């Protein structure tokens, strides 16, 4: 599955993230009729401002509101990454301004610091990585 696109500004709420994940889960279920959705794994950027526990709670709440058993939601917080514009080194960003650990330049650019990406969807009896 691709990176999720959400409304809600630069720091979407846990409910906005949960709704986007619920929609993505619904699309995946349509591709596998008859299978029981068991687990969804997602990567969320650590600078996104989203609390993983709040996302899990909101996600479970969306399913219970529909009287359905929620699949397990695994949330991986991933650190932002910088790219050195001089030497091409990719490195974990400790803050918004960082020097390259390889060549020392400050000519770096933040790369995809706030991804919202479904990385794996599992159904009963089978795993389908994405």
Descriptive overview:
The structure is a single chain. The chain is of the alpha+beta class. The strands form two sheets. It has a four-stranded mixed sheet, with helices on one face. It has a three-stranded antiparallel sheet with strand order 4-3-5, with no helix packed on it. The chain is built from two helices and seven strands, in the order H-E-H-E-E-E-E-E-E. Helices cover 25% and strands 30% of the residues. It has helices at residues 14-31, 52-65, and strands spanning 37-45, 72-78, 81-84, 90-92, 108-111, 116-123, 126-129.
Q: What top-tier CATH class of the domain at 14-79 and 113-129 fits best?
A: Alpha Beta
How large is the count of helical segments? 2
DSSP summary, beta strand count: 7
Order of helices and strands: HEHEEEEEE
Overall structural class, as computed from helix and strand content, comes to: alpha+beta
Query: Biggest sheet: strands, sense, closure?
Result: 4 strands, mixed
**Which whole number gives the mean pLDDT?**
82
Placed side by side, the strands forming the largest sheet appear as 2-1-6-7
Could you tell me the radius of gyration in angstroms? 17 Å
Task: Outline the low-pLDDT stretches.
Answer: none
Question: What is the CA–CA distance across the termini?
Answer: 5 Å
Instruction: Name the beta content range.
Output: 25-35%
Q: Which CATH architecture of the domain at 14-79 and 113-129 is right? A: 2-Layer Sandwich
**Which range best describes the helical content: under 10%, 10-25%, 25-40%, 40-55%, 55-70% or over 70%?**
10-25%
What CATH calls the topology of the domain at 14-79 and 113-129 is hypothetical protein PF0899 fold
Shape, per Cα inertia axes: elongated
């Amino acid at each position: 599955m691709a990176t999720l696109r959400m409304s809600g500004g630069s720091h979407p709420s846990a409910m906005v993230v949960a709704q986007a994940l619920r929609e993505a889960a619904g699309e995946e279920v349509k591709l596998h009729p008859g299978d029981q959705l068991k687990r969804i794994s997602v990567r969320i950027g650590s600078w996104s401002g989203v609390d993983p526990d709040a996302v899990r709670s909101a996600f479970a709440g969306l399913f219970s509101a529909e009287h359905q058993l929620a699949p397990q939601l695994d949330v991986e917080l991933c650190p932002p990454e910088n790219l050195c514009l001089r030497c091409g080194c990719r490195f974990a960003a400790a803050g918004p301004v960082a020097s390259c650990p390889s060549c020392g330049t400050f000519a770096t650019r933040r790369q995809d610091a706030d991804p919202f990406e479904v990385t794996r969807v599992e159904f009963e009896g089978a795993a389908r990585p994405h």
